[in-house]
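step: validate -> pass
step: tokenize input -> pass
step: predict -> running
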Amino acid sequence: MITLYSYPELFGVADNNGYGLKIFAFLRLAGVPFEHRHVVDTSTAPRGQLPYIVDDGETIGDSETIIAHLVRRHGVQLDAELTQAQRDTALLVTRLLDDLYWVMSFSRWKDPAFWPAFTAAMRREHPELTDELLQQARDYNAQRYHYQGIGRYAPEAAYARGLADLAVLARLVPAEGYVFGPRPTSIDAAIYGFLANILFYEIDTPLRGFVAGQANLVRHCHAIHAAIAGKGG
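step: predict -> pass
step: emit ->
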């Protein structure tokens, strides 16, 4: 049995981090049985990052490495019919989501306009998270943002980056079906991981305002959310 370790749920999504939710959705869409464990402490995680999986005693971190492992070990076929051009597009979108991650995280842990509402939601849904723990996480993230670069941006400049990323997704995601056709592939799981953590986020950041105004992004997010609901895992 595979065990997925990822951050706690929030606002009705299975993980409040885009990468963990991406793997959760991928496993559900692929029909691979797994156990899901929510953790906050990343000290024992590979490279100190979530998500990671333990599969028959083997620990694998990094969302892309996890997906490659699942394809190789468990024969997952979600992307089997993709052309090389589609695989290239999926890689480019994956890298775009890496950029969007920092802006989405910035809106929660860095921007003073939304920090109080975010921490209130976290404490409401996870009472075990004390003010001290949340502040420690905020301080840690502030250091990460500084060295990555996004922490040196004014909020409006940071959001401009994220909105540019979302505009690309709005032009890529079709009005019906999924990115590469009538069936979802791994890139749809990845996009959902981030869109769900923006759209279902009950705090009106500029990112949420944009996504909520794009009918195709809203439909795609709800379609994946419904597709993975109630499946085993």
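step: describe -> The longest helix spans residues 84-109.
step: cleanup -> pass
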